[in-house]
Amino acid sequence: MKRVTIFAAILIIAALATPWSLSSCKKDTASKTATVPDLAIVRSWLADRNATAETAALFYNLQKIAKKNILFGHQADTEQGYGWIDASGTSDVKTLTGAYPAVYGSDFLFIASFQRSAWFETQAKITREQAIAAYKRGGVNTFCWHYWNPVSSVAATSSQEGSNGDFYWDKSPVQAVAKILPGGTHHEVYKASLKHVADFAKTLISDGKAVPVIFRPFHEFDGDWFWWGKAHCTPEEYKALYRFTVQYLRDSLHVNNFLYAFSPDCNFTTETQYLERYPGNDYVDLVGMDNYHDLRVGGDVMLATAKLKIIADYAQKNNKLAALTETGLELAANAGTNDWYTNTLAKALQQQPLALAYVLLWGNRKDAYFTPYPGHAAAADFIQFKNNPYLLFGDKVPDLYTIK
């Protein structure tokens, strides 16, 4: 997320408004026939042809759901919230609405970092426990990665490259993308970071099965605030980085429980612009967009919908998933705007037929939050939003992990 302290997560997404079915407006992109495809066919659609059965089923079922509904997601929903942190099972969304979200956002920030202290191990443990719990509830896990600049200078008290880095360019203004590609001076450093991602992914086990994850590396790359942004690498360098990331995790480290998401910010108005840094269909399962700007107070809801349609149309043509991968209104900074969920977000999601798998709002903390708490002036609007039949929270999610 742009310009947000990532220690807390803050963003929530869902859609309400006049409910209407999209089923009559969508072709069946999950299958070329009316019959349920077998596992081998679904795997053939994915970036990872050896994906676990549950991961392939997640892809298939999200495509089905997107024809008439959308899942609601929230970043760090059970890890931190308004006035609490690391409270196992606590959820601001559930406290207010009685239901967990359907999609849970997490971050590899403290997992694939350059610090190995007990505190970081504790954060990894919390994230692991909450991701497994989300899966057991029938929810979907998606992970972004605010990756510390691996080429930043070594701190005086540290012996590890990257330990003095940051994911924001202005805090670590060091060119890195070209240097971590194969043949680059810091390629082995990057491979070691991917090993941390893989090792963690392999600990996400429930009843002997790997928990599927939608992995969203190097997001918002069309901005310049992250070190992997468009001002700091060429389109070809970015594509090469994304491709290597998928290939190394999939083929060398044998991570088979990932779906891969491509998600720029909202700096495009045409499909050509959207695809400028697209690594190719062989490396992507989900196309998305992070969009706070168009959905801000005084923003352009019609423009937000038009961009979502570009994404959804591309997904339909190319047998991908589509999603609004981040959005939200920070309520503390926008006091007095108490109908954003029904009057802005829901309109953006529903004023045109869009086959989107999910929408995710950023997370909550005491001083900045994207979903309201009980008694907040926007609480009634959020509950109305939750009750929109187009939206699916955790209490209405069907089985996502079986192809049937």
From TrEMBL:
<keyword id="KW-0378">Hydrolase</keyword>
<feature type="domain" description="GH26">
    <location>
        <begin position="53"/>
        <end position="395"/>
    </location>
</feature>
<feature type="binding site">
    <location>
        <position position="292"/>
    </location>
    <ligand>
        <name>substrate</name>
    </ligand>
</feature>
<feature type="active site" description="Proton donor">
    <location>
        <position position="220"/>
    </location>
</feature>
<keyword id="KW-0326">Glycosidase</keyword>
<keyword id="KW-0732">Signal</keyword>
<dbReference type="GO" id="GO:0016985">
    <property type="term" value="F:mannan endo-1,4-beta-mannosidase activity"/>
</dbReference>
<comment type="similarity">
    <text>Belongs to the glycosyl hydrolase 26 family.</text>
</comment>
<dbReference type="InterPro" id="IPR016714">
    <property type="entry name" value="MANB/E"/>
</dbReference>
<dbReference type="Pfam" id="PF02156">
    <property type="entry name" value="Glyco_hydro_26"/>
</dbReference>
<feature type="binding site">
    <location>
        <position position="225"/>
    </location>
    <ligand>
        <name>substrate</name>
    </ligand>
</feature>
<feature type="active site" description="Nucleophile">
    <location>
        <position position="326"/>
    </location>
</feature>
<feature type="binding site">
    <location>
        <position position="146"/>
    </location>
    <ligand>
        <name>substrate</name>
    </ligand>
</feature>
<feature type="site" description="Plays an important role in maintaining the position of the catalytic nucleophile">
    <location>
        <position position="219"/>
    </location>
</feature>
<feature type="signal peptide">
    <location>
        <begin position="1"/>
        <end position="17"/>
    </location>
</feature>
<dbReference type="InterPro" id="IPR022790">
    <property type="entry name" value="GH26_dom"/>
</dbReference>
<dbReference type="InterPro" id="IPR017853">
    <property type="entry name" value="GH"/>
</dbReference>
<dbReference type="InterPro" id="IPR000805">
    <property type="entry name" value="Glyco_hydro_26"/>
</dbReference>
<protein>
    <submittedName>
        <fullName>Mannan endo-1,4-beta-mannosidase</fullName>
    </submittedName>
</protein>
<dbReference type="GO" id="GO:0006080">
    <property type="term" value="P:substituted mannan metabolic process"/>
</dbReference>
